[in-house]
Amino acid sequence: MNKAIAIDGPSASGKSSVSKGIAAELGIMYVDSGALYRGVTWQALRKGVDTTDSAAVIECMLNAEWDFFVQDGASTFSIDGDVPVQELRGKEVRENVANVAVIPEIRKFVVESLQSLENFGSLVMEGRDIGTVVFPDSPYKFYLDADPEERAKRRYRELVAAGESEKAEEVMESLRRRDKIDSTRKTDPLVVAPGAQVIDSTSMTLEEVIQTIVDIVRADG
Ligand code: CDP
Ligand code: CDP
Question: To 10 degrees, the CA torsion angle through 148, 149, 150, 156?
Fold first, then answer.
């Protein structure tokens, strides 16, 4: 039977690095759920839709043709025949995605699309509501956590490596703000799913976290 491994947690807890590692180790598909919220946002922006106008964003999503497929071991999608990748990481999308991710109709479309990906085979999916909403019945639910100071340090190191000149205190402040928005929003807030195993990676390496999860999944058959 296909397995769906759910990985949730706050920003910089290691979700995407850990999920990609698990997918590679187990030879299963990797799914970045946030990419789909970003995809809806990108489509709205290129159609000139104001992302604070929920009805217009919904109409824009319904009018588009969505197609899902697997490429290089990761799930991906096209919108009206185009496959956005780098475009999803741009500033405009980043600044508008929060408006789009709070619209219940958009969340419903994204959640149903994510659930349908199980038809492609076993997968590991990272996000904020995978264990609570998308795959609540999966026996493989994990909540990654780490002290806010450690998470801010990880982000800071990434930014410095990318040549950005952000201050360590600003990274900490922005992380605390994101934590608060993610855990207090009305629709599908970030919480530990019932039955999820919490992994605190504050003093663990990436490899140790990946191995811990892979061992649990393998032990189960
Ligand atoms: O996806 P999410 O925002 O939760 O985190 P990420 O982008 O996967 O990880 C943030 C950074 O922390 C990456 O540079 C990882 O390599 C690093 N990391 C780490 O140093 N130790 C861990 N146990 C987990 C992640
Ligand atoms: O990587 P980063 O934490 O910047 O964000 P992301 O995972 O690409 O998600 C983009 C946006 O979609 C964020 O505002 C998330 O809060 C939201 N999101 C969500 O609401 N539910 C998910 N399962 C995944 C992302």
Answer: 110
